[in-house]
Write a structure and sequence with these properties.
The chain is built from 12 helices and no strands. The chain is mainly α and about 240 residues long. Its main location: membrane.
Length: about 240
């Protein structure tokens, strides 16, 4: 793998991991529709996810350092559903990654959720134990390729009366244990691979980190300005296009 391809994969990871358009869905479509495209090896995929995880840790550094025991408990509760689903249904979920039509339908659902987020005013409630668990359930559902993790979790939080900013913040912080846990399971299941130059790993890591930071900022900007419909229209059009072709 050359550094240009590594940078491209880092770009895709940084954009789709946090923008509500489904990174897993785009990966399935790329593998199926782009000639010669292959999924990177396990270790490279893990490195890309570390890049976006570092982006969350950097962006929310002050917030993370000030987290109290209650909020950490909320994050732990929110992590449980995805952990259980990922562990017990791993094989069934991996089978979904080969069904392009299924992914297209889920992308349309993701688009509808994004359109709905713009329409909902959001509330003034904080994150409670109940809300954190329900947002965690949404995160578990988003393991299905085509369902955006950020879109599903933000939608759930806002629909429960949580302010849009708080819902987005909780979604991003909740992504850290989810991403790290998913990659640990991937390593245990598939092991590491070799043969990719060290420079490619470094480029992929840096690009996914930098683009991830930009993506986080865009999510907050579009939420505040009521422009989540952009992601909604994009996801719906992409899903319909894939079904047609």
């Amino acid at each position: 793998m050359n550094i240009i391809y590594a940078a491209f994969l880092g770009l895709v990871q940084g954009l789709t991991e946090f923008l509500p358009v489904s990174s897993s869905g785009h990966l399935v479509l790329a593998q199926s529709l782009i000639p010669g495209f292959t999924q990177p090896g396990v270790l490279f995929d893990v490195v890309l996810h570390f890049g976006t995880t570092f982006a969350v840790l950097y962006y929310f550094a002050r917030r993370i350092l000030s987290l109290d025991r209650k909020y950490l408990t909320l994050l732990a509760v929110g992590t449980i559903p995805a952990a259980l689903v990922g562990y017990f249904f791993q094989n069934a979920l991996e089978g979904m990654f080969g069904n392009v039509s299924w992914v297209a339908i889920e992308l349309i659902i993701t688009g509808i959720l994004n359109l709905a987020i713009d329409k909902m005013p959001g509330g003034e409630k904080g994150i409670s134990i109940k809300n954190s668990f329900l947002v965690g359930v949404a995160q578990a559902v988003a393991i299905i390729p085509g369902i955006s993790r950020s879109g599903a979790t933000i939608f759930t939080g806002v629909s429960l009366g949580v302010s849009k900013r708080q819902a987005a913040e909780f979604s991003f912080l909740l992504s850290v244990p989810a991403i790290l846990g998913a990659n640990l399971l991937q390593i245990i299941t598939h092991g590491f691979d070799n043969g990719i130059p060290a420079a490619s790993y470094l480029v992929g890591l840096i690009v996914s980190f930098l683009v991830g930071l930009i993506s986080i900022k865009l999510v907050f900007k579009f939420l505040q300005e009521g422009k989540f419909k952009i992601f909604g229209i994009y996801s719906i059009l992409l899903g319909v296009l894939v079904l047609i072709i």
